[in-house]
Design brief:
10 helices, 39% helix
Length: 317
Amino acid sequence: TGATMANFACLAAARDKVLRDVGWDVAEHGIGGAPPVRVIVGGERHDSVDLALRYLGLGAPIAVGADDQGRIDVDELADALVPGPTIVCLQAGNVHSGAFDEFAAAVPLAKEHGAWVHIDGAFGLWAGASPTHRHLVAGYADADSWGTDAHKTLNVPYDCGIAIVADPAPLRAALSVRASYLIPDEAGDPLDKVPELSRRARGVPVWAALRGLGRSGVADLVDRLVANAQKIAAAVAELPGVTVLNDVVYTQTCLVMEHDDRTRAVTQRLLADGTAWMSGSRWRDRDIIRISVSNWSTDEEDIERSVDALRCAIAEA
């Protein structure tokens, strides 16, 4: 349906594979009595990863440290890797900073220890479609699975998540089902790869968007979203009392006022005005105003109106 279930599908395949490697068949025996599966995540992973792990009966992950932009600490990851069934979840696009884990260092490290590597790239994985921003995901191709969401970047409707698994065998082992009344297709069936049996053809709007935009169009879309985020960040940084907290490398900008009460007041005034949506959140122990640029139609006028709305909110709060 979305990035949460894309992560679920990928992590279901991961669970099947790492347990099968130690002689445990989940389909036959379930997970009760199975060897423990260690799932290692960064301290700033998205909560949907934890949710997918709960759905899969894997419990709470092992969280290692993250730097000031939310990237996983590779040294702490190395210390956490021990023999046994292991899944490592990395991140392409921190929900607050937009930062990307260092895949070139973390992926081979995890693979050396026999771990399955999954990348949660709800919006950030699309950086790989842009020659200008592909460096942000350098090394990601060596992972085992990737989850993303077409609605966040391609602007297709909700419930268009995408799960990508390098080896289809564990995905089919974890999710496929057979019934006598279902007519099989030699090319494979959608129900081999997703949690649902009944669903609409979600691939159609995704295909249509990709077909309409083409390779260069998707790259241009990504580049424009990033450029707009950087323009907004530069403009709001000039407003009185505003500090931009993150390095704006992708589509996210997080800003604060002088103190939390002031930040909350400005956020409430901004949302009450209704010109621009900049949601409140909490990051690095501070209340923040979070700006996520994801609409294909955002232009210079929209940026000016959004910055003006924030300026007015600051003056009136």
